Amino acid sequence: MARKLTFIDTESWWCPQLAGDYQRLDPASQKHRIGCRRIGVAAAFDVDIDNQGRVSVGTLTSWTEHAHFDEESVVANLFEHLRLRPGHTVVSYGGVNQDMRVLGLAAMEYGLRLPPQLLNTPGRKGPRPHVDLDLVLKASGKTYHHLSEVALRCGVPVGLLEGKARIVKPVAAGAWETVRSHCELDTLILAIANLSWLASQCENGLRTQQAIFTLVAGFLRQRPDHPAAELLRAYAEGIEARLTAQWDEAA
Fold first, then answer.
1. At what angle do helices 208-222 and 229-250 cross, to 10 degrees?
2. Are 135 and 145 in contact (CB under 8 A)?
3. Which of 10, 44, 69, 196 could form an S-S bond across to 154 if both were Cys, CB 3.0 to 4.6 Å?
């Protein structure tokens, strides 16, 4: 079946003011809670799969607190991106436990309207407008996988995954651009994992390596100067070489 997907990722950090105020209310609490986080970066990557399994890459875009002034602007821009794509399914990783909760609190604080994919609609019928791949892979089991673990099993080079768990809030403009690039790369990694999963579920005509090549090549067309561009090109070239070898053998 044809699918329109938007892969999203956010980066958020503890807000000292919110955390301090909550600490006054609950002095015994020694943990920073999710409700005390604010979103500083968001990214979205649009991908289509037609009814024959052919993949095409759409828009890759992102927003930062540094470029757009504050959390409200970052979240509002992400919501507008999704609102303009009502037929797209939103795909996140760990989104139910973190991203959606922080986005929801931001919407409440700033009086923002959630896009249709993120609305709480009990009893909704039909395809789910938001899929958390982390929960899909967990299924009825007890084990959650890190996205990096999943990506390694999908053949993503380890060099593209280094530093994923060590993101601190930037200060300088260059550091903000580094985190923006990291967030955009995470949407590509998520897209690779999701399409690999769809292929394993017998998605009509979808071929994993061809799909991954298209994703990486499409990402590079839009971000030729990405900090990971050299690794991404080598990754794509390796896939292309393997596919060419398979076609030569078949001939």
1. 140
2. no
3. 196
139-144 contacts at long range (C-beta below 8 A, 24 or more positions apart): 144/94
d(CA 101, CA 73): 17
Residue labelled with tokens 């990783």: 93
**Tokens standing for 203?**
């998605």
End-to-end CA distance of the chain: 30
Share of the chain above pLDDT 90, in %: 74
**Dihedral pair phi/psi, residue 135, rounded to 5°:** -70, -35
Q: What is the C-alpha to C-alpha distance for residues 248 and 251, in angstroms, rounded to an integer?
A: 5
In the chain, which ranges are E strands?
3-14, 37-49, 55-64, 89-92, 130-132
Residues 1-23 have a mean pLDDT of 88
Provide φ and ψ at 114, rounded to 5°.
-65, 145
**Tokens 């503890």 sit at which residue?**
14
Count other Cβ atoms within 10 Å, centred on residue 187: 27
Tokens linked to 53: 């399994």
Model confidence, pTM: 0.93
